[in-house]
Amino acid sequence: QVQLVESGGGLVQAGGSLRLSCAPSGGTFSLYAMGWFRQAPGKEREFVAAISRSGGNTYYADSVKGRFTISRDNARNTVYLQMNSLKPEDTAVYYCNADPDRFSRVIATMGPGPYWGRGTQVTVSS
Predict the structure, then answer these.
(1) Distance between CA atoms of 78 and 33, rounded to whole angstroms?
(2) Mean pLDDT estimate for the chain
(3) Given Cys at both, which of 8, 32, 71, 117 links 96, Cβ 3.0 to 4.6 Å?
(4) What is 37-82 written as a DSSP string?
(5) What pLDDT was estimated at residue 64?
């Protein structure tokens, strides 16, 4: 069983930056495709970014492309989401997601894997 713990959320002004981290425990981190999703108040959870097991392939939602970067450090068992040029519409709870079976491209196109963190709040003020 994989447990995911996110950190790095907070309050930032529009145009600012934040870096989220997710550190899974249990299982072998390098065997999981990883993703980030977010959920704003009153909205459905949506895909943000995904990364392959090696880190060689990344996928982004159109709304964050060019502003967010997903990366991973398999030696540190950590996946990151660097968020730049933040906008008020980026305000949401951000969730880390792990998939032991499917490719990261599938996370991006077909939906999340089975393991979730509890989420971290990101608030962008205008």
Answers:
(1) 12
(2) 95
(3) 117
(4) EEE-TTS--EEEEEE-SSS--EEE-TTTTTTEEEEEETTTTEEEEE
(5) 98
Parts of the chain with a pLDDT under 50? none
pLDDT digits (tens, 9 = 90+) for 31-63: 999 999 999 999 999 999 999 999 999 999 999
Report which secondary-structure segment, H or E, holds 105. helix 104-110
Among residues 58, 7, 22, 57, the alpha carbon closest in space to that of 48 is found at 58
CA distance 80 to 58: 12
The amino acid sitting at 34 is M
Pair type for strands 115-116 and 46-51: unpaired
Nearest to 117 by CA among 98, 99, 90: 98
- Give the pLDDT score at 27: 79
Task: Say how many C-beta atoms besides its own lie within 10 A of residue 25's C-beta.
Answer: 11
Strands 120-125 and 92-99: antiparallel
